[in-house]
Amino acid sequence: MKNIKNNIQNLKKKIQYSLKNNDSLIKKIKIIAASKNQSVEKIQMALSSGIYEFGENYIQEGIKKIKQLKQNNKIIWHFIGKVQSKKTKLVAQYFDWCQTIDREKIAILLNKYRTNKKLPINVLIQINISKEKNKNGIDIENYHNLANVVSKMPHLNFRGIMAMPNNKIETTNYNDYKNIQNIFNILKKQYKSVDTLSLGTSIDIKSALIYNSNMIRIGKNIFNC
Ligand SMILES: *Cc1c(COP(=O)(O)O)cnc(C)c1O
């Protein structure tokens, strides 16, 4: 458990090294601790090491932790799992971000169920960048229309895109990273609200940061002790 603190220090060193100690870039990187299957005690350990944003994949598990940690109003909760339409109401009620919008129906329902909240929910469109059959996310050819729909919803704040390139190891084939970087640049020009590229997990932090990711979702490298 003590190792969580060390893991976070090492993660920050890795970010510094990947960005060649460029402080103005380093400052912009948000670390999301992917806390699926992790206990509230472990989340508290990450909190005491200065991590305030957490990503949950399973709605019931996530809500249980959100309720248990309610007294800490600094925490920002991201939903990073597959969104089923019947779960959109709970995502809209409990989470600050939804990173996994992959179809119009989900955007419409999230918008509908967010109406009674003061702030819109921050959303990312998930893109299936490596065109994998069983992966979540919208196809790269179709993200335009979905971005258009999402950007018009008053209770959604369209912040950008999320992707998980198919990488078992740090790779030298960077095409997927280049493509996602291009899409991010196009959307940033088109929509003022777009400022977030959520890309990079424990195995591909360096590649993600090189290709302009500013939000990394890290599980194993933080919680494995
Ligand atoms: C689990 C998970 C992560 C973190 O992956 P690690 O390999 O544990 O760093 C990131 N994104 C999503 C969507 C996840 O489900």
TrEMBL record:
<protein>
    <recommendedName>
        <fullName>Pyridoxal phosphate homeostasis protein</fullName>
    </recommendedName>
</protein>
<keyword id="KW-0663">Pyridoxal phosphate</keyword>
<dbReference type="InterPro" id="IPR011078">
    <property type="entry name" value="PyrdxlP_homeostasis"/>
</dbReference>
<comment type="subunit">
    <text>Monomer.</text>
</comment>
<dbReference type="Pfam" id="PF01168">
    <property type="entry name" value="Ala_racemase_N"/>
</dbReference>
<dbReference type="GO" id="GO:0030170">
    <property type="term" value="F:pyridoxal phosphate binding"/>
</dbReference>
<feature type="domain" description="Alanine racemase N-terminal">
    <location>
        <begin position="2"/>
        <end position="220"/>
    </location>
</feature>
<comment type="similarity">
    <text>Belongs to the pyridoxal phosphate-binding protein YggS/PROSC family.</text>
</comment>
<dbReference type="InterPro" id="IPR001608">
    <property type="entry name" value="Ala_racemase_N"/>
</dbReference>
<feature type="modified residue" description="N6-(pyridoxal phosphate)lysine">
    <location>
        <position position="36"/>
    </location>
</feature>
<dbReference type="InterPro" id="IPR029066">
    <property type="entry name" value="PLP-binding_barrel"/>
</dbReference>
<comment type="function">
    <text>Pyridoxal 5'-phosphate (PLP)-binding protein, which is involved in PLP homeostasis.</text>
</comment>
